[in-house]
Amino acid sequence: MKTLFHASREYFARRFALFVIFILAALLISCGVSQPPPPQPPTPAALPQRPAGAIAQPLPRGNLIMTLGAHDPNTLDPALVGDTTSSFVVRQLFSGLVRLDNQLTIQPDLAERWEISDDGRAYTFFLRDNARFADGTPITSEDVRYSLERAADPNLARFLPAQTYLIDIVGVSEKLAGNAANISGIDVIDDRTIALTIDKPKSYFLSKLAHSTSFVVDQRTIEANPGGWIDRPNGSGPFEIERWDHDELLVIRRNVNFYRDLARLDRVTFLMGAAASNPLLLYEEGEIDVTSVPAYALARVQDENNPLSQQLVSVPQLSLFYIGMNIALPPFDDPKVREAFTLLLDRQRIAEVTLRGAAHAARGILPPGMPGYNPRLPESQVDVERVRQLLAESTYGSADNLPRIVAYGSWAGTLRDVVQDELGIDIEVRSYERFGEYLNALNQKQIALFGTGWVADYPDPENFLDLLFRGGSGENHTAYASPDVDALLDEAAVETDEARRWKLYHQAEQQILADAPIIPLYHDIEHTLVQPYVTGLEITPMGILDLSTVELLQ
Tell me, what DSSP letter sits at residue 104? Predict the structure, then answer.
């Protein structure tokens, strides 16, 4: 899923504080149309204070203002996160046992260290002595156990990310199915020690554990206010919620009880609704400090004669944007129809012309830069004659006999136009008002043809091939299922020889492409303008992960 960032700057009386506006637009969510008055800068007395005896930290360095789009994030409950906007905000409010740093390397988080058993199945984590919630309450192994079991509680929601991110832990399947009260693979040894047992040795388990599904929440806060705890969660991350005007404003402030170095910013303000219009124009007028560059403006910004070119940061993303075809719904229940549709769109033209060089055309599923990427996959070719032949060979007999097709999401309109021009048939394109509704429809596998995207949760091919295409995976929205592919994925999951593991993933990817449940389109490149006085902002191949290191030089 895609994340776009923009930002804005204002000086108040006597240059009291430096403000920055970012725009974080989740995949398929458009920005607002006007900007409300900015919040007033905080007074020193209003800033949270570090507990007595704690290590002194630098003075506050400003208020970062970011825009999240038209509405609230879909959720700020770590156990329910399924999109990049929600994930980004949740990472600022909560922590887990481990985390990914800006080099996408696993680092200790609430756990200061861990031990792995000789058979690679048991992970014993040792919590930090100073791990605590935002209110100063120590975080214990029981809090970790509660959070993991809550994330796998089928009473929480119909579709749970735990089905994807915690499923390797022994007993999670039984918990999700409602057949167990507890997860058998969790063993609380003492207040600071907890052990997790997984079904098989898997090299990517710690990376999956860095996903928000495993983040620690406060049982007391949830049980005291089951219906509204998320408005003021007692989190475990570098920031805590200070104010939330739903669909308008979300303000988070520095968590002074955070165990690591305190956030350099005193506050981050997220604007929503009519607050994110014309970010590039605002940047050029001096009102914006950081902005994602839209494809239509990229050539102008990249011009070496344009001063903006010196402020441009371009980072290829570990992403895939694609059109999915639900193989359980007509007409995509026929593999020849699916193969035909993969030959209709010119991916090179989309990347180089439509997106004006803001993306790499996709040959397969894994993006360049991902371990296990296969550079030998051939480039796709448009072949309308082959399309007609495949449709004639299908159970439908021709394009004219295809049943009515309804499509949703990005690039559906482009495909509709090509299908109309080349085959003379109509595709009806619809949309959902809220992205969360679209996600729910995908989760229920209700949509025959849909445009979407995937940004890596961690840098491993399993995060694409296994999560998106394994039969029964919670992220598999195409209903694709192949025993041969599942067997390859099973073998790759436990393979310790890296070269052999990549080869297995290559075989799985090639088989998936041959079965054609999706039309791969492109891999995104994040093009961001950043003013030189914004420091500590790291744009990774998975977007911006951590705001706690950002400073605004004055």
Answer: S
Hey, what amino acid is at 231? D
Cα 330 to its chain centre, rounded Å, is 30
User: In whole angstroms, what is the distance from residue 185 CA to residue 196 CA?
Assistant: 6
pLDDT of residue 26: 35
**498 and 411 in a common domain:** yes
- The DSSP secondary structure of 471-535, one letter per residue, reads TT-TT--S----HHHHHHHHHHHH---HHHHHHHHHHHHHHHHHH-SEEEEEEEEEEEEE-TTEE
Judgement on whether residues 353 and 457 belong to the same structural domain of the protein: yes
Residue 169 belongs to a domain with what CATH number? 3.90.76.10
Domain hosting 136: range is 98-219
Same domain, 48 and 169: no
pTM: 0.84
Contact 147, 161 (CB under 8 A): no
Range list of H helices, 180-316: 205-209, 219-224, 279-284, 298-302
Distant-in-sequence, close-in-space partners of 529: CB < 8 Å, separation ≥ 6: 280, 283, 288, 290, 291, 292, 293, 301, 308, 311, 312, 313
pLDDT of residue 434: 81
Instruction: Tell me: do 466 and 516 sit in the same domain.
Output: yes
Tell me, what's the pLDDT at 61? 60
Cα–Cα distance, 347 to 362 (Å, whole number): 7
Q: How many domains, the chain? A: 3
Tokens 């495993």 sit on residue: 214
How many other CB atoms sit within 10 Å of the CB of residue 162? 29
- Across the strands, what pairs with 123? 116, 196
Q: Is 357 helix (H, G, I), strand (E, B) or coil?
A: coil
For residues 123 and 114, is the Cβ–Cβ distance under 8 A?
Answer: yes
Beta bridge partners of 523: 360
106 and 154, same domain (yes or no)? yes
User: Is the distance from CB of 315 to CB of 539 less than 8 angstroms?
Assistant: yes
User: Same domain for 195 and 118?
Assistant: yes
Nearest to 67 by CA among 92, 100, 34, 99: 34
- Assess whether 159 and 212 both reside in one domain: yes
Q: Which residues pair with 306 in a beta bridge?
A: none
Distances (CA, A) of 434 to 29, 86, 440: 8, 13, 10
Q: Give the model's pLDDT for residue 6.
A: 34
Give me the pLDDT at residue 288, please. Answer: 65
Q: Which residues contact 499 (CB under 8 A, 6 or more apart)?
A: none
Collect the ranges in the chain with pLDDT lower than 70: 1-61, 288
